[in-house]
Structures
1.
Amino acid sequence: MYFGSVRFFKHILLLLVAVVVAGLIALVVWQSAEVKRLSAELDGLKVEVATESDKPDTETEAETSANGFITTTPTETEAETTTAEPEPVSIGKYDLLYPELYADLPNNAAYDSDDNHIYLTFDDGPSDNTMSILSILDKYNVKATFFVVPQDTDEDAELMKAIVGRGHTIGVHSLTHNYNTIYKDTESFLEDFNAAYEIIYRRTGVKPVLFRFPGGSINDFNTTTIDDIITEMTRRGFIYFDWNCQSNDSDGANWTSMYYGVTSQIDVNKRSVVLFHDRNDCDNTVFVLEDIVLYFINNKDYVFSELKPTTTPLHF
Ligand SMILES: [Zn+2]
């Protein structure tokens, strides 16, 4: 009889062992699959975390691009530094002085090409000679530049308006023209410059961009201070011009000396910035001006022009 026999129980035992072994195998297989699934989930989370931490970079880049200053994509370190510690806004040593005193520059940063150009400049005006100078310039439709030392009077205001109204450039020279005062330090220079600038703007409506240092950018009074003054004036957008042609009118030069001196210098220059003075004691300037203008209008292929912010600066 099979049922209840020893053989029967042996088979039952074998069957149980087989079931247990199969169960164990199934368990191992399931666990292995579970480990794989969890591992895959973990990888997914890592990708998400990585994407999140990339976001600040992207935002920084987008922001910077919107402001138009980006040239390269910031590295991870740079981006982290920017996000964590924004750079403090540094205040320059002269930033708090005359906060309105900045030049309005044109968007076009390119300089004009100006070979054979003659830039007549008149310093120290307005004066009793201003209207005579303007009449001569008008007669030949010559535009020039006046670096003024303005007094806050109606008389000077009318003369400055005439300069501007006839299409010439008005620039700042000085209020006091006192070398010892203005070249003492940058604060003193700014104080003098701002006072002159303010009178010109209030009286003519023009905000000057160009200026000329009294005595030129290199003189005996500013050797220790000029570098700092130029740095500050340039930071504010102002442009200065020296000269490469002297008339020596302020030294009392006569007609002959001025005529031959100025024309011969212009002849050898590629372009010329000519220094004249618009002063009561410089009558010879008025006497010689028309003859010098005629010399180049009649005999040479030259162009007279006023100085502009787009004129290549001329420095000593
Ligand atoms: Zn001067």
2.
Amino acid sequence: MGLEMFSLQGKIAVVTGGGRGLGRAIAEGFAEAGADVVLVARTQAQLDAAARHIEGLGRRAHPVAADVTKRRDVEHVVAEAVQRFGQIDILANVAGMNIEGPSAEQTEEDWDAVLAVNLKGCYLGCQTVGRHMIERGGGRIINMSSIGGLIGIARNSAYTAAKAGIIMLSRSLAVEWARYRINVNALCPGYFITDINRDYFASESGQAFIKRFIPLRRTGQIEEIKGAAIFLASPASNFMTGSALVIDGGQTAW
Ligand SMILES: NC(=O)c1ccc[n+]([C@@H]2O[C@H](COP(=O)([O-])OP(=O)(O)OC[C@H]3O[C@@H](n4cnc5c(N)ncnc54)[C@H](OP(=O)(O)O)[C@@H]3O)[C@@H](O)[C@H]2O)c1
């Protein structure tokens, strides 16, 4: 089979959070492996820029502005994807955000907002696209968790609760939907520099953190998320479902 096992030729992928950061890198990785991509986020200009880049790779791209916390928006994404491309083979739920701060002072609104985008958004994507995949008889779902779904992180209780929830959502769906040939896995990145954490890792304490806690003594390059995402979307991972794949420079290995 050789490298063909990593091919996504002829596949249609939906990537939420595809306008920038890790979601955009994953969307580009899917396109480089042969897939056409539906890009989802709220900021139209970023979606358009990502779509132009993918079209430059010779693949088709369709930007759809949507809020993943709203069921009607997510249903609209699926309808658009099916109308434009006829099917969805791969779903990557990457949209996410964080509001850090001391847990004792966290507002209920902040808790709800973090849970809504990360966990509810992931659930709505899985359920809505899952129904389509059940009907079609198969598919791949990749849900963006974090090492924060595996280890505790101070000042991040809502985020880590949501990311741990994503791992268990993925495991339960993997068990329930195996009969439909739908593989559901979670990705657990460590630290990659994106808008979510750029300021912190540029600071002195951020640099000290890297040296002290990440065995590879660096953060991830955004491109380095692509391999794991392509692997989970491709035939190379046919026998993998319900897993949480860690990409963290060794941070959680000790
Ligand atoms: N960077 C890291 O080190 C790291 C580590 C572990 C896990 N992660 C996870 O990886 C994912 C991407 O993070 P990132 O660092 O690439 O962050 P980012 O650069 O801020 O990108 C987040 C993406 O999610 C979209 N998004 C946010 N809220 C949304 C909503 N309600 N509806 C639709 N789209 C929404 C954003 O677009 P709009 O704002 O335009 O909607 C954007 O495209 C997140 O789930 C994050 O938790 C990141």
3.
Amino acid sequence: MAKMRVAQVSRPKGPFEIVEREIPAPRAGSVRVKVQACGVCHSDVLTKEGGMPGIQYPRVPGHEVIGLVDAVGPGVSGWTPGERVGVGWHGGHCGHCDNCRRGDFFACQTATQITGITSDGGYADYMIAPAEALARVPEGLSGVEAAPLMCAGLTTFNALRNSGARAGDLVAILGIGGLGHLGVQFAVKMGFKTVAIARGKDKEPLARQLGAWHYIDSQTQDPAAELTKLGGAKVVLATVTNGEAMSATIGGLGVGGTLMILGAPPSLTVSPYPLISGKRSIRGWYSGTSIDSQDTLSFSVLAGVRSMNEVFPLERVSEAYDRMMSGKARFRVVLTTGQ
Ligand SMILES: NC(=O)c1ccc[n+]([C@@H]2O[C@H](COP(=O)([O-])OP(=O)(O)OC[C@H]3O[C@@H](n4cnc5c(N)ncnc54)[C@H](OP(=O)(O)O)[C@@H]3O)[C@@H](O)[C@H]2O)c1
Ligand SMILES: [Zn+2]
């Protein structure tokens, strides 16, 4: 039986282990993907460090996967070996529970598969994915370019297009990391007056290079006061991992403005007064389904949105993960298998 490499975690807070496993056969309704590239998302801490109930170890993280359909399981139609596909956080759905029948496939009540969390993900040479979790990858994007669009790109694109902001509105992207640097580009290309907010001066030239109209250094400036001077934000897209940084922007929302929460800090404390007095709201957003991923990939090709990446081979997974966690990566770390 042919073997493959996977980078697995055997217990919460345990190290990455590169181990050999048999290349799995696709189950009914699933395909086997020959992985080319996989982004390293901050959400991979959930698998690496533990923090989400129900994760069974050993587990292979990775939910920004690009590869080729390698084999098709029984009952799968519409996908053929050799096609280039992407797999994101949404790892499939049943299609017949109440949420699926409402079209909210991400909230499927019966299929609880989350790529890299409850099923093995893309830190590997091969992975298995349900057919409904696959996105088609357009020409014009390499595997390394496309991988970060499967979560960092999808999440920011999908949140922005569902945020209620219209062309010309003031939209702030809070945090310029993996998600944020793509959020800035999408906001600019969607026609928003785009403000980037990050810690320190060093990210300002990069934020401006990505198209930001204005930059706020949250270490030396008060983001709420600065946004208010600019007229108040219609939307603040919060991609940071820190709750205080999020709540510090609420006073900078315009009347009726929305703080869209994408980042997952351990807690968030909010004063009700600015929400009540200005009819402001706080809303969360999850990434999206495979068709949202396809939309993200197509828009990125159309509008020239690209992730800035640091590339590591799969065997250097520990270094790649530490680089992501250090906050020094500019801006997405991507693993490659050499396939
Ligand atoms: N909602 C979803 O579906 C979804 C999808 C993917 C990821 N996420 C979550 O989104 C967050 C960002 O992910 P990522 O992959 O973009 O991470 P990342 O590349 O590591 O970036 C982390 C960001 O957090 C900010 N940050 C870190 N420590 C901070 C602190 N002490 N105070 C203020 N800001 C701080 C950094 O801000 P600076 O730019 O100022 O350095 C940076 O922009 C994570 O919590 C991740 O789990 C959610
Ligand atoms: Zn992610």
4.
Amino acid sequence: MELGLTEEQRILQDMAKDFAQNEIAPTVEEDEKNHVYNEKIVKKMAELGFFGCIAPEKYGGTEMGYLAATLATIEVAKESPSYGVTFNLQMNAVQGVLLAFGNEEQREKYIPPLISADEYGCFALTEADTGSDVASMRTTAKEVDDGYVLNGSKMWISGVPVSTIGIIFAMTDREKKHRGISAFMVDMKTPGIEQRAITEKLGLFSSPTGEIIFEDVKIPKDSIVGKPGDGFKIAMYMLDRTRLSCAARAAGVAEKCFELAKQYANERTQFGQPIVQFQMIQDQLARMWCEHEAAKLLVLKAAWTMDNLEQAGGRPTLAISTAKYYCAEAAVMAANEAMKVYASYGYGTEYPIERYYRDAKSYQSVEGTSNIQKVIIARNFIEKRD
Ligand SMILES: Cc1cc2nc3c(=O)[nH]c(=O)nc-3n(C[C@H](O)[C@H](O)[C@H](O)COP(=O)(O)OP(=O)(O)OC[C@H]3O[C@@H](n4cnc5c(N)ncnc54)[C@H](O)[C@@H]3O)c2cc1C
């Protein structure tokens, strides 16, 4: 796909492709099997500048933009959906928020070590009883003389238990509902914080996921990002950026599943001919082709929108939720069809298809479910009546 990318964007894309194929792919199966989060891989991603795309040079970034980051994310996710998540944790979430809402001190403190992967980031919205309904969260941040005290817990948080810093959303004023949520930059080693891994899950085994418990966690006053009560607005802003990253990962998985199924259909023979000769297999491949092409175009459009907000007419939310919804569904569709092309060999673990099939399912839930993306999209079609 050409689309008039700049030379700089193309170089980053090629670099990410080489890196993913030569440095992630050789150990990906073993690392997934053993639930290994390989810090060396994350450090190398940092050295290649993958996490600096959205930050200005003064913080160690390159300002190459979201389109460049999206191209790199797609290439990494094609080999490892798990390491694709790292873009979100090191860049899109925390850096995105601090660049828009953080003060200069917070930016200088947190952005450079996220770019260099000297700190590992996370963002924590979800709780055991509140997923889509973010505004009902129960974790509290009580203001005291010289800071805030956090109590509560977060669930299904990517990067836990290895995260060292995180953006934590908590209620500072429950009466005000969503206007009572605030956002805090928190050192995850602060006394009273416990990070627990969730090991019993379907996939993404090289991407840690976990629970965070806050028990009387004292954090300084200057931990707050923006003003008290800005948390919901910050969360929605952040989700636009993390959904873009998720859509890129899903588009990468859809493309990879198509490529693997195409290769297998040309190699596998039945009834004396490669199975690609059967029209029903051609139908599957043709549909997978269309889905992954459409997914990729939508995510590239969303990324372009992020980089050209003024030209695109303001908020990127519709373009991003459209891409997130479509790419998630395309990834699941492509993985499902690829499993059928591989048949029993897809069901076994000799080929990587079952891994993509398991990992693809995450895209329909994370960063807001497919239903929630449709709710956001449909809001644009409801005309206001008196
Ligand atoms: C691997 C993984 C990593 C994750 N990483 C993070 C992270 O880093 N940080 C973080 O904060 N969270 C994270 N999450 C949590 C994830 O974002 C939530 O699980 C997700 O938002 C959905 O919440 P829920 O699972 O509680 O589902 P629920 O909100 O309980 O939804 C259940 C069902 O009801 C539907 N539903 C709910 N509300 C509506 C509605 N208004 N209209 C129509 N249908 C609706 C949903 O679509 C879904 O089908 C992660 C989850 C996973 C699995």
